[in-house]
Design a protein that fits this description.
It is built from 16 helices and 18 strands. It is an alpha/beta fold. It has four domains: about 10-145, Rossmann fold, CATH 3.40.50; about 165-300, Hect, E3 ligase catalytic domain fold (Alpha-Beta Complex), CATH 3.90.1750.20; about 310-395 and about 490-530, no CATH class; about 400-470. Strands 2-1-3-4-5 form a five-stranded mixed beta sheet, sandwiched between helices. Helix 4 (about 90-105) packs antiparallel against helix 5 (about 125-155) and helix 14 (about 400-435) runs antiparallel to helix 15 (about 440-485). The radius of gyration is 36 Å and the shape is flat.
Length: about 525
């Protein structure tokens, strides 16, 4: 490149958070004044100053860098000067393309002042190596930042840049979430509608018809200025949004992070991590929905529900009724006559008598049976709650209650044995050191004691797990009774009540009574078993 005396210089300054904003030598002000002094001393014209403050060197989509390239294309500058090569960027591939190809092809002189790089000279062989070192620095910083964020995620600290739907960041701690009453009610309703049998498309349509703001629109609405006129929603609810909410453990109080990552420190492309690499920390914030409701929603979203075509809503018993003989689901049939709708065995409906028997039961009959049974259980459980809990534990956990006393006695026995073994091991060490116990006998005794101690520890762990199982059963029983109390005055059934209280209903049919269609109904309550 031939020497030129009349240069229109573009001064480029860049600083990112990773470069250290407290360093005076790296500050934007220091870069700008240093480069301005040099350009003026050379007698060149300062055409423009470009500043990208807070932009990473691996990202070449910086606003002022792009503006500088546009000015080069327009012929407004023919010299680019930076403090050092790292200010131009920290991606050695792209930096090399600009310094070795782009600038020379457009007759633009490039100077990295502190590195002694000047494209007018031919002694710039060091430039590629400096670019590689700058790139390595960026990679090292990327690894350190990612490790720090991962450690915070493992501690259950929220790392998102904006509030997740249903929550807001705690004003006193930006890494902790608290419930947002404006959106939490929408989240809870989504789960309740899902459990009640509504499909994802139906839920989205209901929310859109009611004017509920989607997560994207809600975020935009919170930033909206009233002076700009009326807020107009742009992103409607759709099935994928509903699915993401129902699948998200965040709403049961678990912090779920590191679901995505940048593909490389050189690119901004974001890719999904495998689910096993997600960081999940339990009980970090207040849940919006119960764990039981969350589990029910997962089952419903994985399964398929039959709908009544006339109104587009699922029947309240769909997915709950099963044939006691073959285990298939009972299928709902709509009858236009006055006898009303009914259920039959799915296998019978498909194969006839070769598959199973009808197990025919009308909707009115099953409705009346289940309603009366729920009402009877409510009266029974309210009369003596302790007795009800014992009955539930008895039906669900078999003989665990009577084994509890034995387990506790055995636990105390094993704990004492461990204590005695520790004392024996200590005595053996003392006797060996004093010479009372020879080394060969000491090793033999020690191996025996250690083996017995390991067996005792395994037995203790098994007993503790057994006791924990029974304690959980008691907690679940109490939780079930609390749930049952919500329906003290129930006079009508809906799908939400049924799915909250009942896990399944079996319809049994005796061959000798098949013509009379006398079915036996077995109702299995959650945490209780067969009523």
């Amino acid at each position: 490149m031939r020497a030129q005396q009349d240069y229109n210089a573009g001064i480029y300054c860049r600083l990112s958070v990773d470069d250290g904003t407290d360093s005076e030598s790296m500050s934007i002000g220091n870069q700008k004044h240093m480069l301005m002094d040099y350009v003026l001393k050379q007698g060149w014209n300062i055409s423009e100053i470009y500043i990208d403050d807070g932009w990473s060197g691996v990202n070449f989509e910086r606003p002022d860098f792009k503006r500088m390239i546009s000015d080069i294309e327009g012929g407004r500058i023919n010299l680019v000067i930076v403090k050092d090569l790292s200010r131009l960027g920290r991606n050695y591939i792209l930096c090399g393309q600009f310094t070795e190809i782009y600038f020379p092809e457009r007759n633009v002189r490039f100077i990295a002042l502190n590195d002694g790089i000047d494209s007018l000279n031919n002694n710039n062989d060091i430039a590629p190596f400096k670019n590689i070192l700058n790139d390595m620095y960026a990679k090292d910083i990327s690894v350190k930042v990612r490790s720090a964020l991962y450690a915070k995620a493992k501690r259950g600290e929220y790392l998102g840049s904006c509030d997740p739907y249903g929550y807001i960041r705690d004003p006193d701690n930006k890494h902790h979430l608290v419930i947002n009453p404006e959106t939490a009610s929408v989240v809870k309703r989504i789960f309740e509608m899902c459990v009640s049998g509504y499909g994802l498309y139906k839920i989205a349509r209901i929310l859109n018809n009611e004017g509920a703001l989607s997560p994207s629109d809600y975020g935009a609405f919170k930033k909206f200025q009233l002076d700009n006129g009326e807020f107009m929603p742009k992103v409607l609810w759709h099935e994928s949004m509903i699915r993401l909410i129902i699948r998200n453990e965040m709403f049961i109080g678990n912090m779920v992070q590191c679901r995505k990552r940048s593909q490389s420190y050189r690119t901004q492309k974001i890719v999904w991590n495998p689910q096993e690499d997600w960081v999940v920390v339990k009980n970090t914030h207040e849940p919006i929905v119960s764990e039981e409701l969350f589990k029910q929603a997962q089952k419903h979203i994985e399964g398929r529900t039959r709908f009544i075509k006339k109104n587009g809503e699922p029947h309240i018993f769909n997915g709950l009724l099963f044939c006691a003989a073959c285990g298939r689901r009972m299928l709902h049939h709509v009858r236009k006559t006055s006898r009303g709708d009914y259920f039959t065995c799915g296998k019978y409906s498909r194969l006839g008598k070769m598959g199973c028997t009808s197990h025919y039961i009308t909707v009115n009959d099953i409705y009346e049976i289940v309603l009366k049974d729920i009402q009877a259980n409510i009266v029974l459980d309210q009369s003596d709650e302790d007795a009800a809990i014992k009955m539930i534990i008895s039906s669900k956990c078999a003989d665990d209650e009577k084994h509890l006393t034995i387990a506790k006695i055995e636990l105390a026995k094993q704990s004492k044995q461990q204590f005695d073994l520790d004392a024996r091991i200590k005595k053996a060490y003392e006797d060996n050191v004093s010479g009372k116990l020879p080394d060969d006998l000491f090793k033999m005794f020690l191996n025996d004691y250690e083996s017995e101690k390991l067996k005792a520890a395994q037995t203790i762990k098994a007993i503790e797990n057994e006791i924990k199982t029974l304690d959980n059963a008691k907690a679940n029983a109490s939780s079930f009774l609390s749930l049952l109390k919500q329906y003290t005055d129930v006079t009508a059934l809906d799908r939400y009540i049924l799915n909250n209280l009942i896990s399944r209903i079996d319809i049994a049919e005796s061959p000798e009574n098949a013509r009379k269609r006398n079915q036996t109904v077995f109702i299995y309550y959650k945490c209780r078993g067969n009523a």
